[in-house]
Amino acid sequence: MILILKGGATEQQIDHVIQRVESLGLKAHLSRGTFRTIVGIIGDESEIVVESIRAIPGVAKVVPVLPPYKLASREAHPESSVVDVSGVKIGGGHVGLIAGPCSVEEEDRMHRIAESIAAAGANILRGGAFKPRTSPYAFQGLGEEGLRRLRDVGNAHSLPVVTEVTDPRLVELVAEYADMLQIGARNMQNFALLNEVGASKRPVLLKRGMSATVNDLLMCAEYILSQGNPNVVLCERGIKGFDPATRNLYDVAAVPLVQQLSHLPIIVDPSHATGKPELIPACALAGLAAGADGVHVEVHDCPEVAKSDGPQALLPEQYAELAQQMKSLAELLGKTVSPLPETTA
Amino acid sequence: MILILKGGATEQQIDHVIQRVESLGLKAHLSRGTFRTIVGIIGDESEIVVESIRAIPGVAKVVPVLPPYKLASREAHPESSVVDVSGVKIGGGHVGLIAGPCSVEEEDRMHRIAESIAAAGANILRGGAFKPRTSPYAFQGLGEEGLRRLRDVGNAHSLPVVTEVTDPRLVELVAEYADMLQIGARNMQNFALLNEVGASKRPVLLKRGMSATVNDLLMCAEYILSQGNPNVVLCERGIKGFDPATRNLYDVAAVPLVQQLSHLPIIVDPSHATGKPELIPACALAGLAAGADGVHVEVHDCPEVAKSDGPQALLPEQYAELAQQMKSLAELLGKTVSPLPETTA
Amino acid sequence: MILILKGGATEQQIDHVIQRVESLGLKAHLSRGTFRTIVGIIGDESEIVVESIRAIPGVAKVVPVLPPYKLASREAHPESSVVDVSGVKIGGGHVGLIAGPCSVEEEDRMHRIAESIAAAGANILRGGAFKPRTSPYAFQGLGEEGLRRLRDVGNAHSLPVVTEVTDPRLVELVAEYADMLQIGARNMQNFALLNEVGASKRPVLLKRGMSATVNDLLMCAEYILSQGNPNVVLCERGIKGFDPATRNLYDVAAVPLVQQLSHLPIIVDPSHATGKPELIPACALAGLAAGADGVHVEVHDCPEVAKSDGPQALLPEQYAELAQQMKSLAELLGKTVSPLPETTA
Amino acid sequence: MILILKGGATEQQIDHVIQRVESLGLKAHLSRGTFRTIVGIIGDESEIVVESIRAIPGVAKVVPVLPPYKLASREAHPESSVVDVSGVKIGGGHVGLIAGPCSVEEEDRMHRIAESIAAAGANILRGGAFKPRTSPYAFQGLGEEGLRRLRDVGNAHSLPVVTEVTDPRLVELVAEYADMLQIGARNMQNFALLNEVGASKRPVLLKRGMSATVNDLLMCAEYILSQGNPNVVLCERGIKGFDPATRNLYDVAAVPLVQQLSHLPIIVDPSHATGKPELIPACALAGLAAGADGVHVEVHDCPEVAKSDGPQALLPEQYAELAQQMKSLAELLGKTVSPLPETTA
């Protein structure tokens, strides 16, 4: 890490900086420029150390040199990780296609949707049982009943299932039913929840928060990894932007950026990123072309009766067309859409 | 609510829209323009209804007419609410001055800081015992030991205390020690947590999330209010912006905006909003001038040894000077800084 | 357009609204809801009318129904436009590949770069002669000498050329040398300049401003179209975002969005969007996959001696590899990279 | 400036970096850490040098140490500048109160508005004659006729006048009539225009662009200063934000930030920042409390017939009340609202 001292820092301040740095067990290397004095520091760059140093009188700026995440970084782990979701691989050339309704719906409908997406080539079924809703008066999900139904429908169609968990007290319950635990964008920095899914053995789908930098996202993955769960798949699902024409701002450049900084797989979610069905196919293909390890799309056979987020779902026939295009594109890129597992647990 | 249909919506689509609207128990009022057909809808405007309607084929846009929050809205409750924090009033002309270190520190230091802020005129002591940190390797707070110390120090100086709660499982514990429960920016949309503090009887300090609109903030207040806890104080603490010159973007216009939309008190936190001690006094005064019902400032007597967020703390002597200016400004605005309670619980 | 009146608007206010609307030559259609009165308005929706109406006492909100642009809208012109840049087609299935250095460089180097990009499959050469620089002390371009050199090099390699114009007084001069006039992001709303290029006969490459919505971009295209120049190609080149990890935020969803709203071609510029050579190939492919009608990439054979923006240029060999991938992807999408014209003017 | 080399930079790359740095006439100072090699550079930090160095193979990051502006920086000019607008002082404790309609209106109305704002205590009259409008179909201003009228009305009420100039070809004409030239937000980085107003002798009101950082704003001031015109007043008028509840996002923290980095005066414009009359008074007071050297407010006596921007104007009686509050607040802060000049030119 590098300290830039304020213009006009006194000798006394410089001495104090050196002394403080050394009292933290670090080595300081002084360099006096014409206008500014610089102190190079060798050693630990954890957040608490950076903060302490930035608060020393006379310090203008602290420039970290190393990334603050370790387990998530590609430097520490050069090979791309492959996450196995009950037999479906994501990462390292294996493409995951996650599809399904926003909320778990009635049983018949779930079977119809699952059948259609499996036929189209999707390999993981999604559906929310515990829904984080901006309004306390909106539908909050079916709870355990929804988990059970999702599991049954997944089994019937040989599709592993992913569903969101929103409360640390529910991680154990959700992990009983689901093959993969989703952390939603609003909970990306819910550290109590991250610690719980980190302690679980289930693969985790970690969605990027709406105001999270890529660095923030990787730090949250680090929480999960540091608890001993290495099976983290990241997801770009749109961040906050100023143009009301789309629901969120789809940051497709985050895909290659994450892949340079980290070994973890990253998928895209054009449904939440755009909120507009007519933009989803183009943005799904863009994500794959950018190198994404998978694509998450909401699918519903009658959006106007969906329990939530109907307006952003594709119809099964639209999804089938898109899935065909995604397979061709994956092939062009030298990747494979992962096949369904023989049987799911 | 108003539906704008797509250009070229067919008669069949229009009929289906009317039918769907009526099947939801609402009344539709059709209006055919030269270029577009409009449907006015009278009745419930909850989120699920808006979503369902937006997903009907042929609908281009849904424009809600009423705010989606009810209990939080000023329409429903024209008089400004006053929240009482163990004897210290916030709102309706009463100014709360919250000050203290980011994390609860060692006992001696806590007493020194508490003494200095009380002497300066602050009326609530803050300090974190459970810290949400972006790094899993950073100091996570002292836990219950921190709560106990904060309580003791508050009692010794007749200062009610506020501290953050980050996990729904900890609400009961924190409420035993604290006069006010803080929900941090990263947890603003942690709905499980909001429901728990809503079920508690303690006043809640609800900080605005970094990507939250004012509408989002009021919807989160609605979660708490709808659980039966009316004692919510909102806090503008900076949102995500594009200029790295400050830590966050201080949205001071949110203060008068919230006050028009809602009866709830709103305070400002220039420490987190700017992240720069040299900007805090100007921004604290700006918040008060904009009409804020209080100001939250981090104070530490030796920022370079602070357990967290040292770089953004004011020194006690800087805070004393600022508090003096805030008192003069409050007076000019016809407001009063709330006095300390005779005794705290 | 639809007016939503304030809750509690008086009969007198309602009458005044109707009267004002009619005095503007428009027809008003009143609809009284339980909580709000709505006025539907039939007729002109130009900006000045919207503003005037929004300022009438008692009006809470004005919701436009029609897009504010006419010539640029797809409703008015359903077929996709094809812009011909001296023989190279952009739009309607024809892909433009624009490449070259940020600034026009010395003659030898320009020839080397032009030769390499033509061999790779690019069909338009770029290079800046008048550079808008954030610093008054930075290199400002070679001026007319640069224009002449760009023209000569383009001719030598049968490549039409595009270059930026930054000053309305220079449009005529630049149009003498260039096949296409670029309006840079910082000048997107320089209306004096838009009017001048609108009066010119040259095709225009209009880059999206860093804080421009898609609607803003289309309004600026409307300026040019309304002056009688129909040859406008739009360009997504990144908007302002909060994550410093990339130079700008690449809004790839703007590509399909523009294509739904407008008939004008739109290309992408991953060089400016990301500012990082290592992200450019992935983002170029993402743009094409999203449906872009072309890709603009900066290429330099020795970035460290580039007169400007060296850090974001691809090397010729990197560009050649990318161009190959772009051609394969275009083919998969049923599009063709436009061939070089037989001869350029 | 400091270079951080990539992890794994080779000896050959390090040698090449040193050689390139020295070939630019700079001195390099090498420092090898455990994980990264750092090169401190002493000498010129202009933009072109930074870019060239960032493009050298093996360089991961360049950290500038000095601000890129010189004439605008407070380091170079510690005392706060006072700008004299034909007898009205702005800066250094002198408060400018600029008020008037968005566009120059008919003569009678201009006199009525001017009279009312002068009586309220405003000291500069504003009014647009050349209007930058997002729509080519909107009212574009009265042109020279508007300039003449503004001048006459200003003279009649002893108010200096400020008006926007949007085209470098018009600077001379506008400077004949106006006491102060306004550069609007959309033209902040119109460098041709900045150079022309820099060559003029008139004071300049430079508004911050909607996506401009404070650093960008100061670089644009540097353009004007470097042309020999030292009379620059900056203006915070709201930047692009994600919450549609206000027109722009009022960045009040930019006021103290600019005052630390620069000696130039800075005023605020809550009219454009919020776009909502009901928020203007609170935000005007917030700006003053944050230390602003002046406040710019749009005033119109019948907003619904305003030629432009009616919805964000205060009525004269609202402005009079606000002006009274601003005077009291200025007094509390030890500042003075500048009196009207005896006569204006």
From TrEMBL, chains A, B, C, D:
InterPro entries: Aldolase_TIM, Class-I_DAHP_synthase, DAHP1/KDSA, DAHP_snth_FXD, DAHP_syn_2. The keyword Transferase applies. Gene3D superfamilies: Aldolase class I, Phospho-2-dehydro-3-deoxyheptonate aldolase, domain 1. Its EC number is 2.5.1.54. One of its GO terms (molecular function) is 3-deoxy-7-phosphoheptulonate synthase activity. The keyword Transferase applies. Residues 87-332 form the DAHP synthetase I/KDSA domain. Keywords: Transferase. Residues 1-66 form the DAHP synthase ferredoxin-like domain. PANTHER family: PHOSPHO-2-DEHYDRO-3-DEOXYHEPTONATE ALDOLASE (PTHR43018). This is 3-deoxy-7-phosphoheptulonate synthase. It comes from Roseiconus lacunae. The gene is aroF.
